[in-house]
């Protein structure tokens, strides 16, 4: 087909660039909630990433950011999802169980 040779260099360039684009895309992290505690928090969260909150308890929980940047209801045994929109140390807690709290560190 005429015109195909012109795509050669462009395709080669795309192959070089694609891996770095993939590394910059949003990622998903899982935080498990069990026995009335938030589990280990991911250390490599960046703005734009998604957090899946996996409530394995028989109680309802929430993950509520103090600054209001996220607030998700988590019925017993359910998962919920939030997207972290900004960088910083985001303190959060469960609105039903004030002892359940954590600080999510989000890089740019
Ligand atoms: Cu709770």
Task: Report on the architecture of this protein.
This protein is α+β, with helices and mostly antiparallel strands and 108 residues long. The chain has one domain (26-107): Cupredoxins -  blue copper proteins (Immunoglobulin-like, Sandwich), CATH 2.60.40. The chain is 19% helix and 41% strand. The protein has one helix and nine strands. It has a five-stranded mixed sheet with strand order 3-9-8-5-6, with no helix packed on it. The protein has a four-stranded mixed sheet with strand order 2-1-4-7, with no helix packed on it. A hairpin with a 5-residue loop joins strand 5 and strand 6. The longest helix is centred in the first third of the chain and has 21 residues, at 4-24. The chain is globular, with a radius of gyration of 20 Å. The protein starts with a helix and ends with a strand. The model has no long low-confidence stretch (mean pLDDT 87). The structure holds copper (II) ion (CU).
The residue fraction in helices comes out at 10-25%
CATH architecture group name? Sandwich
Mean residue pLDDT: 87
Uncertain residue segments: none
Query: What amount of the residues lies in strands?
Result: 35-45%
CATH fold field value:
Immunoglobulin-like
Cα end-to-end separation: 45 Å
The first-level CATH class is given as: Mainly Beta
What is the overall number of helices? 1
The distinct bound ligands, ions and cofactors come out as: copper (II) ion
Rg of Cα set: 20 Å
Number of domains: 1
- Main sheet, how many strands, which sense, barrel? 5 strands, mixed
Protein name: Cupredoxin domain-containing protein
Organism: Sphingomonas sediminicola
Pfam family, one: Cupredoxin_1
Keywords: Signal
